[in-house]
Amino acid sequence: MSAAGAGASAAALRVVVADDQALVRSGFRMILAADGIEVVAEAAGGDEACAAVRRTRPDVVLMDIRMPGLDGLEATRRIMADPSPALDGRPCRIIILTTFDLDHYVYEALNAGASGFLLKDVTPEQLVAAVRLVSAGDALLAPTITRRLVERFASPAPAERPPGGDLSLLTPRELEVLRLLARGMSNAELAAALTLSIETVKTHVTRILTKLHLRDRVQAVVLAYESALVTPGAPGSADGPGAGPGDRPGGVAI
What we know:
By secondary structure, the protein is α/β, with parallel strands linked by helices. It has 2 domains: about 10-135, Rossmann fold (3-Layer(aba) Sandwich), CATH 3.40.50; about 155-235 and about 245-254, Orthogonal Bundle (Arc Repressor Mutant, subunit A). The protein contains 11 helices and 7 strands. The chain has helices at about 5-10, 20-35, 45-55, 70-80, 105-110, 125-135, 145-155, 170-180, 185-195, 200-210, 215-225, and strands at about 15-20, 40-45, 60-65, 95-100, 115-120, 140, 250-254. Helix 4 (about 70-80) runs parallel beside helix 5 (about 105-110). It starts with a helix and ends with a strand.
């Protein structure tokens, strides 16, 4: 795709903003609009968010957690359970944006199908970059959350292993892709590191998820740490040297 084509595609992104505070919604709308991203609907609660997504079929939803009535976590579950795609045929992506940096919120959000979990202290530039990254199929976690995830899986593995996850099913190339994916690389970075096209990288990622019976890249990263395919703190890891907050849009891409 040409630079002009890529810019046009990026400018066409459509977003629903769900937050119970009108000032927050207005602020997000202004930030996104300034970068050519259209906010097609706002919602003050989870039920409104679900209705707005069904009506507008956006590319990305920015979802608060604590809202009156239906909360953002349950709204995320319902939206992700709906097979209706965005207007371009791709699935809708959800970024949880909250002030509450709590582990159980993170795990519930990821289990519900969210593609990102960020805190509301992100900068405008980081918010815009996160929306674009998630719409392209990547996942994103706030740096503090990534550190806790790494620390969790650095501890001794439990006796009971999760279902699936037989890494022997993967080819050497697929193992290499999974290892780098777990280090926090986006599709573009994987393509550059392995001298492959982005489409080839996407194909490898899809095959990895299918073979390991995983839902998304987040589960693949978790499995990579659980299986000791990658070691927390090793060179090139998400929180290691060269991967500071300035290198990612408000978090670590996974």
